[in-house]
Design brief:
By secondary structure, this protein is mainly alpha-helical. 91% of the residues lie in helices and 0% in strands.
């Protein structure tokens, strides 16, 4: 029915899309914070950025756990596996970058940004984008199903109305 399809879309697809959008945003924010941390020289500012990185990383982990309760459709599990691998690569690149920054070797740190951190970030965000696209396609399919069910219901009501009028004329 239209009601059950609408409910499934609202409670499933839209909730997942919001969580994924939050995940994507938090990842972008963490990347910016990481680069800010690498370039910051003020210890107080560094500590503040580090704290925000930890909080945002914990938020991302929490989002991933929330997404685990949703049923996975065909192909979705593979997307999550790629994302997990790319996130691991990104986190490792970030750790290596922060470790290199602690040596105060500016040129080496900048090279690591270009050779390791940025490519890992781009790959991680691309994997997340595939999930966004997958969920968008599911939402579009659900919307089409709701529209089809609605039109079927309208046609049924019209048919019943015609039958009722014909029945009334015959009496």
């Amino acid at each position: 029915t239209v009601g059950s399809l609408s409910n499934a879309m609202i409670n499933g697809a839209i909730a997942k899309q919001r969580l994924i959008a939050e995940w994507y945003g938090a990842t972008n924010a963490n990347a910016f914070r990481t680069l800010s941390l690498v370039r910051a020289s003020d210890p107080t500012l560094q500590k503040d950025i580090e704290e925000k990185l930890k909080i945002s990383s914990a938020t991302i982990t929490g989002i991933q756990k929330q997404l685990e309760v949703f049923p996975k459709l065909s192909g979705e599990d593979d997307i999550y596996k790629v994302i997990t691998a790319k996130r691991t690569d990104y986190v490792e690149a970030r750790k290596a970058l922060l470790k290199e920054k602690s040596t105060d070797k500016i040129e080496a740190t900048n090279q690591l940004i270009d050779s390791s951190f940025q490519p890992a970030l781009v790959a991680y965000l691309a994997a997340l984008n595939k999930l966004v696209d997958f969920e968008d396609d599911l939402a579009d399919q659900s919307s089409a199903e709701i529209q089809a069910a609605y039109h079927q219901g309208q046609q049924l009501i019209e048919a019943i109305a015609v039958i009722a009028v014909l029945f009334g004329v015959m009496l």
